[in-house]
Amino acid sequence: MDMPSGAPFLCCWRFFQGNLGRSQVGIQELPNLSFGSAGQFPDVYIIQEPYVPKGKAFGLLRKWRTVVSRTSKMLVSLRHPGMEILVRSTTDHVVAVDLGLGGDRITLVAFYFPPSQDQSLMVRELAGVYDSLRSQFVLLAGEANVRSLLWGPAVPDNRHHDEGGPFLDFIFSRNLQIWNDCVLADL
Question: Which domain of life is it from (predicted)?
Fold first, then answer.
């Protein structure tokens, strides 16, 4: 499993990320979710607050490979049958997996910071996982429940207004790039 010399060709991988608010109906609809009229389904589902009764992923197809955080607050599920997965870490609010397809390899770190939790503790948990990975190509995807002009939303909402605080410190200290679709995030 050699690492590619350049960045993985992710434009062909389809990701869906969303917070389901522990909705049973929401998670049952994931197998039907498609992009556009061509019926292209996500390869990877990154779900915050999934409906996970008794620690078991509910409503997802059995052939999907699914990893759930210790507290069931975060779920990563692979629909693509040819995609490889290796679980690197699961904590209370973070799931880290290596994904591979063809010659492309990335590490996905998915996280969820509940708004009721101390953000400093959540960032320490994420940083501990991220710093332990030593991976060349890492995609962080999650919901930090903080706002910043760097990622939005531009409209007022109920998120803590600390301009990112410890989470921004984490991003800047590791020279990470922010990629967020603010149009969709505002919905």
Answer: Eukaryota
Residue 66: is it exposed, middle or buried by C-beta count within 10 angstroms (0-12/13-18/19+)?
buried
The pLDDT tens digits for 132-181 are 998 889 999 999 888 777 776 666 666 555 556 889 899 999 999 888 76
State the pTM of this model: 0.85
Burial 157-183 (b: 16+ CB within 10 A, else e): eeeeeeebebbbebbeeeeeeeeeeee
CATH number at residue 90: 3.60.10.10
**Would you state the pLDDT for residue 67?**
95
Q: Phi and psi dihedrals of 99, rounded to 5? A: -120, 140
